[in-house]
Design goal:
- The structure is a homotetramer of 354-residue chains.
- Chain A has two domains: 139 residues, NAD(P)-binding Rossmann-like Domain (Rossmann fold, 3-Layer(aba) Sandwich); 173 residues, Dihydrodipicolinate Reductase, domain 2 (2-Layer Sandwich), CATH 3.30.360.10.
- Chain A is 31% helix and 24% strand.
- Chain A is built from twelve helices and 13 strands.
- In chain A, the strands form two sheets. An eight-stranded mixed β-sheet of chain A has the order 7-8-9-6-10-11-12-13, with helices on one face. In chain A, strands 2-1-3-4-5 form a five-stranded parallel β-sheet, with helices on both faces.
- In chain A, β4, α6 and β5 form a beta-alpha-beta unit.
- In chain A, α5 runs parallel beside α6.
Chain lengths: 354, 354, 354, 354
């Protein structure tokens, strides 16, 4: 493989705009890092806030060219789609109620879309988007990012290769504590606590969608029947913070589903166990480099990224040598220093040449 | 903090050249990803191979401008240092015997250096480099990258804050199995197995230097006295593959040191335990998001990146919310797709506008 | 405390008979070890098989006196209850359909009962036994042995002490793989696969009862409402092998319940997470010496038997110094009760015969 | 196998005396539990304290017959060895300086010995005891109890079966924190802090002996050469609290050895890694039910007591079904030997007196 297959294919990087993810956003930094990681994307513009002034300040700090700094999403799409070097794709990481419009407008302009989950706040909107994607033939990606972990891909590949036999039982849970403290003060008007903006069920949109997706991704099965209770545990909250369900899959397998953001002290425990006729797999997001395979009648095994037995689907999504967790290049990055004094802006202003 | 403090400071990204790390290299991809992660560097040129043709092919695939593709390190330094938009820094990831020359030449041209460990193959060279750095006032970074993990920084910060009391005992080990198999075929002329190129002691240069550095970094102590055996376990090998030592630190603490690349089946176990009068800390690179603190007379604690009790030195080196391992953005990145067909080079060639 | 509080109280050990648990039985050996562990019981007789010859052989090998070797449970109860040195208690570890008769007959003879779970095969029988116990004032112990682990007792004690605040969410699972293999050959007429003998639901009687009990024991809550599916996954089986449920507790807390014996490759994963307003607790039977406490807003803690923070309820059920793990039969042993008042030394002094 | 092979062989249990281990002793309770666990021993007498009154009180509480309560070890040996139903064996758990006399006197009276480690305080005494054991043909057991854990036996069996290939590297550590706190008040005259009673090196006698024994037991190798530092870290202490060594084994393998009781906050971390040409094994006492096998070129495996792949040496020392963890006193119990030939039923038949 070449060092940069995108440049090899296109003669250039893909040009990306980002919508949302400004100062103070966690997922914004994640998107930008992820886009840059393999140097396949160049982020050329973005709208970082619904406040145009704040957005322009962020855009300037990210070093965008001045003629690519826009006041609104619509303006961005219009102007970029008329440039010869306009964006190829847009990454949308705004409150849920805007996903539909921002995606639809992009598709209408011929722009590929990378959209944060949940797709939309209503089924009707989701189906309309789906139809538009089919009509246009454009790319629409939903960031069910946990399926990008090498060991999740390994799990899927092992199921596909028949190493588990027929799937019989699935347990999935996504348990967080970040919204457990009823005394914690969230920003006034926090959109996630507003059902009109965050959607009908906070816990299902925020993390239930990941749990459901992870189950489908690894097993290849669809949920056919559900018995569920979705509700609210923490007092004085207008949105759901837990959901439990029993599942029947389309091959007859049975499942358990449990998601909550009200489990005080738990950090981010997305966990799955899949059992088939020939063995079980266990994975937990908090130690994502570990996949446990428990074959029927043989010792259980610890599978690791690029370790022995890695299947191609998994190998393709890590750049690492076995034993080096995915955080390895981030630790290396910490090492790379901030600019020394002699290069600072004020010094440079007085000294045009080196 | 601004979204990009480097652009904020300089009005532009730092300009970086990379030496080494071409096709097939693990550390090359790591360096490039790390440089790009926070968008503080722009990699503008590089020499990827001692074979000029191979180097130029790699440089072209990385999308460098044609007037920045060079035939040799010397040419690169000369031409870049005379450009107005020349490189600020060079990252060196070549065989160990070239570190001295490539670093020295860069410093002589006023270029900051990011150099892979070990620094040089002899103490004399290291001291000459050190003297040059002091004379020039330039930046010289050695990539002891494991100290960039958030929980290693947390460990250092806890020691500095006195949470362990006076350090008494240190155990450090770096155990790998990658060179354990005597039947494994390495490339002919593999430089690591050539003492003239890889240096006098493979295991000490490759991983012993990390173990020693990690100890100093976390404890702030220096090793005063050593009783050691360094040698070779795997037959027919001209380089060292294990080293053991007992250590006496400059505050009277005692230590155990054990490094080997001959432990069949072990992946990459860099592990440290530091004990002081008030408690012990334990960390292992294979699960880098976990730091265990065992205080005297109280339950042991699991510290996590950005979890409760995170100290500023640690917080500064992660971008993540607690419960999301450092691999989180890489999993997200996997999600971002390769270019769709309509954008491929051959298609673009026939269609200049979108 | 004296070295043997039973001898201190009675002037002798308690005299125990065992029913069931002969050659080839796992639980039989566990019972006998547990009875002996603290030297508070002397096993003086037993019926080990419904085949009198086999039973007598086992009894002889255990060293019972010849005049205490019996042909039937009824005979044992009759003759022992008329001896001056007759048994104080009987431990019953026979197939489930015999629990009711063997317990009832013992209670009718004034003998205390230690009975394996499930109590009986029908609710009516259980209620009749309960009534008899209340009438007679005798001791009736059901061996929910997992509650004897020191860290389960610690969990209960922490909940009682208010360290978790108000309980909001409970997840309990008991997942085994021992009956997952549809090709495994079980003994002909194996009673567990016969609903008439093993009861209406194998998985609920075998392990569901433990999961339910563990939840009640730790939380002190009762299940008020249930939505459940209980069924069979492995083909050609007449008994249940999985059960899932959503729970509503009597304080409004919500719960998830999942038990199965059909998870290929899993050994014996009984696991519970309890979340309250102030933090969460996590425990797993496969590493019973570890209890994780995740307080709201502070680092998670690893609690260990007799380690820092151990509460009296937990301390009382281990004989060990911190760092020395406990074992399963010790947990069972904890269950075996102290002598009831009517047998205490001062009572006996005034009443030479039973 | 019969339910009680000792009764099967002898027609009775073995008769045991215990010396030491009275009220307040941890190891005393462990010995007594372990002796009783499989009902192969009957503890008939003991001396629990050097204070005769205290000893008699303990003996009485343990329910010994009044004519078997003695004032001194010598009296116990004399009177027991002249009884027809006298003791078969003695278990010695007294301060180290008494091990030699109490063992020697027992051997001189024809009594088998189970002695706590370390064997004696001097090499001369150890050699004298060894000579006496050879002359008498009696049994002398030293309680290196950690080798009784099922997974330690499994490790030894896997090495013996060649599953690791030729052993190349061994790391062993035994790290405790119980004596780390310099402010902790120990009982006045505590024998372990008195070199004359506890022996020349507290840390080596207490735990170094276990670490050394564990290494020999699993690998079957002997240490040929040592470079070591043994010393004292905690101020104001007359005995050693840490020891480090580099080892050369008799097959050329290299090793690292580290023991300390001064690691604040650590509980009881006895840990070993053994690497051979074909793979590595890792075990840690704090989770004794887990043995990790890391084969060259295949996924690492988790071995469990009686789990898949269990070898006979390991299977023989657990009574448990896979997934049910073992405990410390069970490991000790494994140590208590089967009856020697001279006591077997057929021998006794021809020889009514001892």
């Amino acid at each position: 493989m070449s060092l940069n297959p995108v440049i090899d294919m296109l003669g250039r990087r893909l040009r990306l705009a980002v919508i949302g993810g400004g100062t103070g956003s966690f997922i914004g930094a994640m998107h930008r890092q992820s886009a840059r990681r393999d140097d396949r994307y160049q982020i050329v513009t973005g709208i970082f806030s619904s406040d145009p002034a704040k957005s322009k300040k962020d855009a300037s700090e990210l070093g965008f060219e001045s003629d690519r700094i826009y006041s609104s999403v619509k303006e961005l799409y219009e102007k970029e789609s008329s440039r010869k070097d306009g964006i190829d794709a847009v990454a949308i990481m705004t409150p849920n109620d805007s996903h539909f419009d921002y995606s639809m407008w992009a598709l209408e302009r011929g722009i590929d879309v990378i959209c944060d989950k949940p797709m939309t706040n209503t089924l009707e909107e989701a189906e309309a988007l789906h139809k538009k994607v089919q009509e246009t033939g454009l790319v629409f990606c939903l960031t069910h990012n946990y399926t990008g972990y090498p060991m999740v891909r390994q799990a899927k590949a092992m199921v596909e290769a028949g190493e588990l036999g027929t799937i019989r039982l699935v347990q999935v849970e996504y348990v967080q504590g970040g919204k457990a403290d009823e005394n914690k003060v969230f920003p006034a008007g926090y959109w996630k606590f507003d059902p009109a903006r965050g959607g009908p069920s906070l816990v299902m949109g925020d993390i239930g969608s990941h749990a459901h997706n992870l189950t489908r991704f690894i097993t290849g099965l669809e949920v056919d029947e559900v018995s569920a209770e979705i509700g609210t545990i923490v007092p004085n909250r207008r949105v759901h913070d837990f959901g439990g369900a029993m599942l029947r899959f389309n091959n007859g397998a049975r499942g358990s589903f449990w998601v909550t953001q009200a489990a005080a002290g738990v950090e981010n425990c997305l966990r799955i166990r899949v059992s088939g006729t020939k063995g079980s797999l266990e994975w937990m997001q908090e130690i994502p480099q570990a996949l446990t395979f428990k074959p029927l009648g043989a010792p259980s095994e610890n599978r690791t990224p690029n370790g022995p037995g890695t299947l191609p689907l998994s190998a393709r999504c890590t750049r690492l040598v076995a034993g080096h967790p995915e955080g390895f290049p981030m630790a290396l990055q910490i090492f790379i220093p901030m600019p020394p004094k002699r290069l600072r802006r004020d010094v440079l202003a007085n000294k045009q040449t080196r």
